[in-house]
Amino acid sequence: MKAIFLANRAATVDYVYSPEAKERLKKLVDIDVNKVYCQEDLEANPDGFKDVEYIFSTWSMPGGTEDKDDFARYFPNAKALFYAAGSVKYFGQHYLDKGIRLFSAFAANAIPVAEFTMAQILLANKGYFQSVRMVRRGHYDRAVEYSKSHTGNYDSKIGIIGAGMIGRKVIQLLKKFSLQFYVYDEFLPKSAIKALGAKKATLEEIFSECDVISNHLANVPATVGIIKEEHFRLMKPNTVFINTGRGAQVDEPGMLKTLRDRRDICALLDVTIDEPPVEGSDFYKLDNIFLTPHIAGSQANEVGRMAEYMIDEFERVLADKQTQYEITQEKFEKMA
C-alpha cells in the first residue's frame, strides 16, 4: 500500500503530524514521512501518483477557494483521503466524485472551539469582560456594580444557534452547571433538541430571552446574514453575543449599529467577515466588542489531536471496521 502527504505548505504537515504520529503511519503503510507533495509536484509529474492508495493532508490542501482545479484526477487508484483539519468543502467534491472516501478531523477541531466557547460563556455570565476594562480605566466600583447586574452561572439562559458538532459539544460541556439551554437549529427536530436537554427556540426567542447567545451555524448559503440587526435589538440588558462560527452569518453593519447604541450589551467575536477587519473599523473602536484573531480552533498541542483522529480512522479502514468521521455526499452538502 502506498500513501503520501499532500499539502501546499510542508510546514503545516509538520505542525499537525508529530514525529510520533508519523511513526504510527510508517508502521501501517508505505509512506515517506519526510516528503510532502504539493500542487507543483502534481502538475510536474501528472502520471507519477497512480500507485497512491491513501492521502494524508491538513490545512493548505491543493484546491483552495481560489483554485477549483480537480487535483483528484492525479490519483486514479486512491481509496481514501484523510484530512487532519476541519472543513473539506473547498476541495472535497472532486474526490467524492471519483469514489475516493473522504475523512475529516472536524470532530477533533470541534473540541477546542467548544472549550473556548464554554470558558467565554461562564465568564460572560459574571460580567467579566467589560468589568475588566472598567477596572483598568480606574472605575472599580462601577465594575463591581456592572458585574452584579449579570446573572452568574446558576439558572442562566444560554442560547445556542446551530447544534451541530460544536454546538452540541458546548451543551455537553456545560451540563455540569445549572443552566438552561435554548437551541435554534432548522435541521434538528424538537425531539432531538429535547434529548440534548434543551428547548427548541426561534432566533427571536433566543435573542429576547437568553443571557448569553453563541453562534455555531454552518457557513452555508442559507445561513448568510441570518442574524440581523433586529435580533440584536431584542437583546436584554447586559446580554453577551459570542461568535466562534463565521462572520458571514451576521449582519455586521446592523450588529455594529446596535452595539454603538447599546453599550450595556457585549460581543465576543473570534470571527468576522473580513479577517482582520478593515483598519479604522468600529470592531476596534467600540469598548463593548472583544475581538480575538480566530483562535478558537485547534492550535499548538491541540492540532495533534486532529492527526491522531485521522490515523485512528485509517486503522479502522484497514481493519474494515465501522468508521466515525467519514464525509459522505449528504454530510458534505450540509458542511460549512
Question: What would you say this structure looks like, in words?
Answer:
The protein is built from 15 helices and 12 strands. The chain has 336 residues and is an alpha/beta fold. It folds into 2 domains: 138 residues, NAD(P)-binding Rossmann-like Domain (Rossmann fold, 3-Layer(aba) Sandwich); 182 residues, Rossmann fold, CATH 3.40.50. The strands form 2 sheets. The chain has a 7-stranded parallel beta sheet, with helices on both faces. It has a 5-stranded parallel beta sheet with strand order 2-1-3-4-5. Strand 7, helix 9 and strand 8 form a beta-alpha-beta unit. The two termini are 32 Å apart. The mean pLDDT is 95.
Helix-strand blueprint:
Elements: E1 2-6, H1 10-16, H2 19-28, E2 30-37, H3 39-44, E3 54-57, E4 80-83, H4 92-97, E5 101-104, H5 106-124, H6 128-136, H7 140-148, E6 154-161, H8 165-174, E7 178-184, H9 190-195, E8 199-200, H10 203-209, E9 212-215, H11 229-233, E10 240-243, H12 252-261, E11 266-269, H13 282-285, E12 289-291, H14 303-318, H15 329-334
Parallel strand pairs: 1-2, 1-3, 3-4, 4-5, 6-7, 6-9, 7-8, 9-10, 10-11, 11-12
